Amino acid sequence: MFKAKMPHDQQVEAIENNSLEVNELLKTQEHTYFDKNNQINSDLYSTLVRERKIRLFSILVYLTFFIGSIVAGVINFVLNTKKVVIDNDKSASLGIGWYVLIGAALLISLVFLIKNILKYKNLNATERKIRQNIEHKDTPTYSVFYEIYQGIVFKKLRLNWLFLFFITYFGLFTLLIFLLKDQHIVIGKEGTSGAFNFFLDIKFHNVFDKWFGNVEVLAYSLLGVIGGVSLLFTIFKIYDLKRLNALKNHLSGEVAANFFATIEASKKQENRAWLKTYIIIFVLVVLLPLALILFLIYKKVIRRK
């Protein structure tokens, strides 16, 4: 049904009230920071402060992962490797599989830690440059808004693809652990000999225990890693979206429109490159080996025991 039209004075009052509500909401969402030296515009200074805070948070997260990986390596040595190397317990596990996973986590966390430290230092250098421009009576450059916006857009794109790669391959690895940990298979025919004849009797529970010490601990630890990484990915994604929306308020006019169009075109081009890479790797790493395994199962070269 149609609503009765409000009188002009009431319309104006309603618009003013709505504007006040929106402004109050925005104030609660984005805190404004002011330069104590009264040199830098509050919008620009607030952007620099917020970017430094997210870099500090990222540094803390990756530093925690880095230290946690080192601690995990020490724990693996004490619980597994020490029994073989020092206590001469030949039935114990060396924990080689854990060292591979821990080493990967250590390397990845170190790369992202260094990357965020460099970005934090770059933000400090940008602020110093802006202050120098102001001191020399030059108009401060606001290109920092464009640079940060571009960085966040491509960071989101690359983070999405990296997360997809992680979920695909780490998820497949976890799935294989759960599917195979209680399986006993044989490959080839027992009693055959020759250059192209072989026989393997694989008890996966024993194999995984030898690699990792305890397959049950491994399986649920992997699920915990997937859950933790997914949670962090969601937090970063939501916060990056908030940062983009905040930056858009400072980008307007024809220059901004051309900038957005250029960014969108570059984003689509890079997204296509990521897609092609993902498909090629998935075919080589997953589909071709899977087809070979299914063929060997069909020919009864691989059998459950």
Shape: elongated
- Describe the strand arrangement of the main beta sheet, using strand numbers: 2-1-3
Number of helices: 7
- Characterize the main sheet: 3 strands, antiparallel
Low-confidence stretches: 1-29
Distance between the termini: 72 Å
TL;DR?
With 305 residues, the protein is mainly alpha-helical. It has helices at 8-29, 42-85, 96-135, 143-180, 204-212, 215-248, 253-298; strands at residues 184-188, 199-203, 302-304.
Keywords:
305 residues, mainly alpha, elongated, disordered N terminus
Kindly describe this structure.
The protein is mostly helical. The chain folds into 2 domains: 39-139; 142-304, no CATH class. The protein contains 7 helices and 3 strands; from the N terminus they run H-H-H-H-E-E-H-H-H-E. It has helices at 8-29, 42-85, 96-135, 143-180, 204-212, 215-248, 253-298, and strands at residues 184-188, 199-203, 302-304. Strands 2-1-3 form a 3-stranded antiparallel beta sheet. The longest helix has 46 residues, at 253-298. It starts with 7 loop residues before the first helix and ends with a strand. The model is unreliable at 1-29 (pLDDT under 50).
